[in-house]
Structures are given as C-alpha cells and as structure tokens.
Amino acid sequence: MVPVGLSYAVTLRVGHHYGAGAPMLARQAGWVGIGFGAAIMLCFAATFWAIPARIIGLFIDAADPAFAPVFALAMSLLAIAAWFELFDGVQTIAMGALRGLKESRLTFFIGLCCYWVIGAPTAWWLAFHAGWGAQGVWWGLAAGLACAAASLCYGFTRRIRRWQRRSPGADTPAAPPSAAAG
Question: 136: which of 30, 107, 126, 154 fits an S-S bond (Cβ 3.0–4.6 Å)?
Fold first, then answer.
C-alpha cells in the first residue's frame, strides 16, 4: 500500500508540473518519488531478508514439526518476496509518474508485455520445466515485475526527454518586464 499511496502523490506532482509546462520539475518530481519509494521498499525487503523466521512465525508455529515443510517453503519464498517488494514498488510509482504525463497507453502495453508475455510464461517454465516448483513461479513473476519496473522508468525518462525537445526553454523563467516597455 505504501507504493500505491506514493504513486498517487507522484501522479499529482508530475501532473501539476506537466500542466504548468515545466518538464524539468516534472522529471524531478517523478524521480524523487521513484527513488523515495525504492528506498522504502528496500527497507521492507531488508526486513524480509534479515528476520524471515520471525515474520513467518507470526503466521505459523515454527516449533511444530507438522509445519516444518511449510516453514521451509515459506522461508524460501519470503527471500523472493523481498525482490517483489522492490520491483513492485518501483513499477507502481513509475506507473504513477507516467500517468501524471497523461501516458496511460504505454503503461498498459508495458504491463501486458511484462506480466503476460514475460512474467507468466517465465513462471510457468521455471515451475514446471526447470523443476523449481513454487520458487519458480515466484521468480518468474518477479522477473515480470522487474521488467515492468525497468520499462516504466525508461518510458518515463523517454517521455520527459521528448517533451523537453518539443518545448525547449519551457523551464526557464520569464524575463522580468523592462522599465522601457512601459
């Protein structure tokens, strides 16, 4: 939920600067939001890596031998979920930055390609053909999220650059009125 909230804030900030015709400020707002979100999600990921047994212990009794296989599987999946945290946070906020630039078609196609063309088939292949089981599913889906995060960040950068080329000097302040003009 943290990246979703940040995504809304980034959408509004980037959209505000987009409407004001300030591509440099829109770029700054987008990248500050993406960077801040990545830092927060990296903290969550580090928590998953640092204390996985404690986190899993909140849901199952690790001391009960009946739960030993579930606990072992959960430990391996939580390490992969840490990568999910980072990739999903970045892609969610980058998607918001693109929405602020009124770019929803690109986010749709990136999502379609990364989730359904890359993530789902990779998950299926790793799980069933490579024999990785549940970890393969999670790694495949993480690959889709990583693809989306990278593609959306690249799309945001490209869209800002294209906007700057179309309107050079958009961020330069207007010259003050001269005394002779009066």
Answer: 126
**81 alpha carbon, distance to own chain's centre:** 14
Burial 98-133 (b: 16+ CB within 10 A, else e): bbbbebeebbeebbeebbeebbbebbeebbeeeebe
Query: Of 92, 101, 73, nearest to 160 (Cα)?
Result: 101
CB-based contact 106:61 (threshold 8 Å): no
Render 48-87 in DSSP notation, one character per residue. Answer: HHHSHHHHHHTTS-TT-GGGHHHHHHHHHHHHHHHHHHHH
Reported as a single tens digit per residue, the pLDDT across 1-59 is 999 999 999 999 999 999 999 999 999 999 999 999 999 999 999 999 999 999 999 99
pTM: 0.87
